[in-house]
User: Fold these one by one.
Assistant:
Number 1:
Amino acid sequence: MNYPFKLELIYAHQRNLRKGHIRVTQHNDETNQPSDEQDSKKAPKFFKIKRWKFITFSILALLLTIILTVFATIAIAHKFSGLDDSQRKSFSKVESTYQTLANDYYKKQDSEKLSESAINGMVKSLKDPYSQYMTKDETKSFNEDVSGDFVGIGAEMQQRNKEISVTSPMKGSPAEKAGVQPKDVLTKVDGKSIKGKSLTEVVKMVRGKEGTEVTLTIKRANQEQNIKIKREKIHVKSVEYKKEGDVGVFTINKFQEDTAAELKTNIMKAHKQGVRKIVLDLRNNPGGLLNEAVKMSNIFIDKNKPVVKLQKGKEIESVNTPTDPLKEAKDMKVSILVNEGSASASEVFTGAMKDYNKAKVYGEKTFGKGIVQTTQEYSDGSLLKYTEMKWLTPHGTYIHGKGIKPDVEIASPKYQSLSMIPDDKVFKEGDQDKNVKSIKIGLKALDYQVGKENNDYDAKLKSAVEDFQKDNQLPVTGKFDKETNQKFAEKLVDKANKDDEMLDALIKKLK
């Protein structure tokens, strides 16, 4: 705002230069100071300012500049802070509290810890299991998950209703091999309770150096059991392809960077092999990057078609396919296989394919996660992940908490849904207990004759337990004790990893 005044002085001075009227007017030596009269005679047409007036004007200009700068700074700060008056008033209390505790608390406080605690408090107040603040180290782990390379046990976890549970174990991971199942609730890590801890804190406890072991205490159907797992360096393969007769089976483990590109490459490979019927196996796929789900949908869905609709308040925005579908995929019959461990981006893809009749869905109802998270990374490497909106299928279906029902139901084997049998109790002939039925179902799956599937530990079951103990070099007692229980669980896990009854049933339907 002081520019007009300065420009006028410069302009008058420039005119003097052009006219050749260059005179020094601010010497202290009075003999060299021209009089006003002389000045008036020599340059009567030019703009003049006396020294005292010039000083006064300069001071006023400076004060005006300072005042305007202060007000402009405040206005700009308010404009770009993103806070309205009410929000600024609320935040001033937070800032005041921070300053008081940082400066006046009787014990010295770490300013970084204070600010992180404040952020964590705000996030926890949301009561949203999918929103969280991550430190620099936690952000590193998060980014490893997105890229697909990390050291751990390979179990996707979530926090809900103050409980941390397994969304799904990754295929071929140490967690899956050890028998961890979707919806298992974690209660302890290496004997230490995780009550009150955040998801990121628990993940940090579970992870560690390659080759070391971690013991998880999990609760399944209100019964706890310890599972020991060896940590490994894990590279999560996005897509695995195998040919089963004339059917191409694509196991999609997670939606990470380049998942769509990997699937596209494998589909072209299968097409060259003459494959025209494909199965996209999304069982226990916990989701991942939304943009990869959109790209993967675009392999099959026409250009400029909505894959997912993002809703925030009343506003709905469609995310459309950017390109034409893959030529090789056009003449393929597509089937999708899902279960209760298929979540998030898996459901985005499945919902789009189902709405456009591009695939028939088989298996069990999916997990039901219909909300989208966004991340904001800070300069210190920390990160905020928060739920920004919910998503709908192309036809406007909201699946959160409901899941997607398959077109054709294929149930998983009974033994894969068994509750943990407590290993601190011995079951024997004459007992009546709901766990006895689980023992019968499991032994029957392992090809032992158990008679009726009920809660009675009868002579038939005792005989089956004795046979199982003989076959596995265990003391033959006919009692289902801790040692027998552990071997029983191990054998069922081996069977689940070896035999894929759901996939076999689907392939049979496709022939």
Number 2:
Amino acid sequence: MSDQPTIAALRMGNQFAFEAVFHAFHPKVYGYILQKTHSAYMAEEVVQLAFIKLWHYRESLDPEVSLSAQVFRVAKTTLIDQLRKEAVRSRLLTQGEAKGTAQSESPTENALKRLEEKELAERIQQVVRSMPGVRQRVFAMSRFKGMSYKEIADALSISVRTVENHIAQALKQLRHNIPFF
């Protein structure tokens, strides 16, 4: 089933289509956000903000992309925005209450950090999987298994210089595909 008619109706400002989308996706999006935050209050806030954003930016919805993917992308970016705001708010409160006292990270900061680390790890795995076979193996052996260049060269019957070249190319590919890598 195509989402194009629903997306077209949303883009034209059809409130009935929006209500249908809200009722169809609210439980799924709420569950996703609750799983990430472990806070019913924050999950409800984020879901409400996500659907407000979806309505506000409805004209930019892409009819060629599944509605589910677009709804969850809005929810995910809304969650990240809220976690950042909460982390800043928490940091400012901590600084104001205990000037000069070392404080541990708040649960919100921890959740944001875990989410960002997980997304980065997934993106790295995706880029590594797109590498040519030998480069992929060399990189995995070096970075994921902790093997030295010499050990990799011996295991694959290639020269250490070839291992170095594969690692250099892999890192170049990662930097090209992942900003700030």
